[in-house]
Amino acid sequence: MSALPPAVSPPATPTPPAAPAAPSRNLGLLVAAQSLGGASPPIIISLGGLVGQQLSSDPAAATLPVSLYQLGLALSTLPAAWLMHRCGRRTAYLLGAVMGVLSGLVAAQGIVHSNFLMFCLGTALAGFYGACVQSYRFAATDSVSEPSRQAQAISRVMVGGLIAAIIGPQVVIWTRDTLPMTPFAGSFYSQALLALMALPLLLGLRLPPPPRKAVATGVRPLAQIARTPQFVVAAAAGVVSYGLMAFLMTAAPMAMVGCGHSVGEAALGIQWHVLAMFAPSFVTGKLIARYGKRRITALGLVLIGASGLMALAGLELTHFWGSLVLLGLGWNLGFIGATALLTECYRPSERAKVQALNDFLVFGTVAVASFGSGQLLHSAGWDAINAGMLPLIALVLVLLVASGRAARSGGSASA
Q1: What pLDDT digit, counting tens, does each position of 203-219 carry?
Q2: How far is the C-alpha of 186 from the C-alpha of 177, rounded, in Å?
Q3: Cβ distance 95 to 398 under 8 Å?
Q4: Computed from CA positions of residues 320, 322, 327, 332, in that sequence, does the dihedral angle turn out positive or negative?
Q5: Does the reported pTM lie above 0.85?
Q6: Least crowded by CB within 10 Å, which of 11, 59, 265, 297?
Q7: Residue 248 and residue 263: Cα distance in Å, rounded?
Q8: Which domains are present in the chain?
Q9: Where are the alpha helices (DSSP H) in 176-228?
Q10: Where is the composition biased (Pro residues) (predicted)?
């Protein structure tokens, strides 16, 4: 009797390649890094003018360190994006954090040595770190595979901004007088320490690598993408949302003090404004998923317009505070919605340059607003500033409505 042939086992299933780190892990690291990196701007913005008054012989140059930070951020968006495209986001983010450490140390040394130019150099260097931190929201979209979850990922990372809005001012309070002979130097040493703490978090990121040139076929020229209606609408919404917020937030404390309110009342109004900017991030992504990117972006712009109308209604403390809270809420919905809209404009191989152009436009506008808000407030007045923003909002709302109709007529479900 012949032996039975040996049983044939089914072919082994090939072992799939190792999966990238879980999206939730990346998002958690990005939230933590956003919390630390986002704390630097409040330190610079709250103390830059005071240190400028202390170090500069020209009172008109007191706010120059803050303006140079905003300018440095705007100018850094393009080289930061180039580095991300060539070397990957993690490498660029690590370099950004190193620049954050260096900027805090240089600014602190400027205070120690009573050197105004050195202090300005430190705040300007912080702009590169700021550009990288602002890009964390785009890294969040790279961490999720489903386009329907991108808005929620953006919103989740922006929650880190709420934590940063608490960390930054508290660091100023705790450390501004830690070195009695050099007031405020301790806060900028702490800024460097926060950036140093972000380094191990960024090292733990496992993000998709940049597309290789050999694979990145069909890449459209940037000028062609910038002319598409999708990009025009997304960029316009981002520029108007962020630009108006920065402009009015900068002018509001000066307007409040000019109307007889105290510096403490102005500071409290800004604190409520910052909380309103980031607190909705817990639900903004869900709102976008339910109602659509364009509708939530439009709602944000409407709230910014409502803040202007409340400011025009009177000069009492309630008018200023209510206006600032509405401004913060509108910024959150408008800017996160505009960021989500931007993801519709590019292919994976085009993302770096499109995101860079968008952020250059947005933060370039913020830099101009930072330089010009005080002068325009002095020449035109608080009411004129708030009335003048309404036509800009109306224009972007018209663009959003038109793009929504075009998307529906083309069978899109993203409106």
Answers
A1: 998 877 765 654 445 67
A2: 7
A3: no
A4: positive
A5: no
A6: 11
A7: 17
A8: 21-208 (1.20.1250.20), 220-408 (1.20.1250.20)
A9: 185-203, 222-226
A10: 7-20
